[in-house]
Every structure is written in structure tokens, then in C-alpha cells.
Amino acid sequence: MNGTSFSFLFAGSEDCLFINIYTPNANAGASLPVVVFIHGGAFMYGEAGVYNTKHMMDRDIVVVTFNYRLGPLGTFHRGIAFSGSAFSSWTHAVKPAQKAKTLAAIVGCPTTSTREMAECLKYRPGEVIVNAQIEMFDWRLHWFTPFTPTVEATGTRDPFLTQYPYIASKAGATLRLPLITSVTSEEGLYPAASYQADPTILPELESRWEHLASNIFEYNDTLPLHLRSSVAQKIKEKYLDGKPVGQDTFDGLVQFVRSNISKYNTLIRKLRENKKIGTETMENQNVKVPKIPNGPEWLPVKPGQAELDYLEIGQKNIAMNSSADFGNKAFWNSLGFMENENYRVNMRDEF
């Protein structure tokens, strides 16, 4: 069941937990590689059938796709991540109990007892719960659902996630397995493209910039209150050259959104690990891309190196490049965000 911020519509069914397994015409008992595809969608929308897998059946490979419940409803040897990773700040819920109580109040459930609240929510229709998210948004457009994964409390029966990925990685509690990760050059078109749907959106964003920036760009819970106004202005100066939000500065807005969604946070950990990393890739749905016989050697990241080596797939060329400030790292570090620190300490009162 999907709920999107673009049209405030929901689609699908709560009865969605199905798995799809695709196999070629192979001999029974053949040992084939298996690709497990977990669809994206910022925990808010998407489904297993978003990509047509029939082209992959030209190869001796098994493809597995599945649905999972999204938003408030809702064992590998290597991986491929695109448009973010578990290290991206937006993939973790901040103040999840507070958000759950807000949702419960909207749908008419008690909030004084978490047990009673949870029991009440079980009997609310999925459509009602998904639509209730709209009332939790501070603005008419919002990127992500308020309900993303959170760490389960100590003593929880059969817990799945007991540490935030950042903390687990810092403690050496994660497996060191091969990973390919990528971003696209115009990542910020999601959701910035929706700002073009109504001619009043960009002017409203400009007039309320200091207030909306902290909500839309997800730093309400990661930056002290007294810094939010100045940070909003620094962001505008960096990406919009200090000019008003509008059609003339829309490309800059797209680039800012791009950095916030997937780029910088995703790459923090990779700077210290010997893994291959790529960027500037474009997704080709239902298009078969030929092999490149004389492509460049894809070099892994060198641990501790100041510059980040990455594979850039451009419109005309594919080449290895390097940058000491990938994703405007220095700028984002200077703003005082405490996204990862929030997973280690309790939030201060001023947040």
C-alpha cells in the first residue's frame, strides 16, 4: 500500500506480502546465481513489479522480488545500493515514539498507554493509517514518510535491528562484504520536480524558506534551534548563490536536494574501507546495456586516502575520477548537523 506526497493518493493493498521467483529454462537442480531485488521508494511507495524482469531471463540467473509494507504499515553475500544506503540519515526514524503517538491521535487512538495505542492501531483500516500521514506533514509537499526503521529496545522479543547501522559499523559489528553504491547526477529531481506542479510552490518556498528548509530538508531533529535560521541562509548562499528560490535557481535547488537525499551520508563510511564505489550513473529501465570491452579499471577506495576515487559514467565517457570534497563534504561538515551523534546520545531539550 503506497502513500505519496505528490498527489496525496494511496494505491495498492495492505494484503501485499508476496514473493516472486523468476527462473530461466534451466535444468532441474542447476546451481544458479540468485539476485534478490528489494525495491526502493523511501519507505513510502513502490512495489515488487516496478521493474520487468523478463530481460534477465535471457541469462542463467534466478531473480527474486518481493513486496513489503511501507510507511507506518510497515542474508546476503554482496549488494548493490543506489540512491542512498543504510548510512543515509533519512533512513532512520528520529523520535519514533512521538511520531507514533501523533499518528495515533489523528486516527482517534489513545496515546497515554503504548499497549492500548498499539492495540487500537491494529483495528484501524490501512487506508486510514496511510492517509493520516498527510496531517503530520508541516508543508503540503514532503519527501519521505515519517515512519522509517528504528532500533528496537533492549529486551524486545526476537529483535531485528538492535543498533543503528552507523553505530554498528563504528563498533566493527557489521560484515565487511562487497558493495557497489551509486548516485545519479540529477538525484534531486525527486522530489524537486513536484515543485513545478503548482506555480505557487516555489514562491511559497522562498517566502517561508527559513521555516520550511529545516522541515523539508530533514534537519529539524539534527540541528540546534538557534542554528536553523543561519544554516538555511548558508544553504541558499551555497546552492542558489544567495538568490531567491524560483525558476532561475531551480537547478541549484535540484543539486541541493540531491546532496541531502543520497550523496554525502552514503559515502562517509566508504572513505575508510577498501570497496569499489561509483557515481553519476543513470538507471535504464527495460534497456539492455552492452558490455564495454575496453572500459577503465574500476579502482577500489583506498583506506585513509584524502581523495575519494570513483567511477564516473557520463553521457559520452566512462572514467575514473577523484575528489577530496565529494558531495561538498566540507560544506556539510561545517553546518553542525548531529545526524549520527543522535544515535549515540539522547536529544537535548532545544531540539
Automatic annotation (TrEMBL):
Keyword Hydrolase belongs to the record: yes
Matches recorded under Pfam families: COesterase (PF00135)
InterPro entries: AB_hydrolase_fold, CarbesteraseB, Carboxylesterase_B_CS
Keyword annotations of the record: Glycoprotein, Hydrolase, Serine esterase
Entry superkingdom: Eukaryota
Keyword Cell cycle recorded: no
Domain Carboxylesterase type B span(s) in chain numbering: 11-74
GO molecular function: carboxylic ester hydrolase activity
Matching PANTHER family: CARBOXYLIC ESTER HYDROLASE (PTHR43142)
Protein family (similarity comment): Belongs to the type-B carboxylesterase/lipase family.
Protein name (database record): Jg22074 protein
Organism: Pararge aegeria aegeria
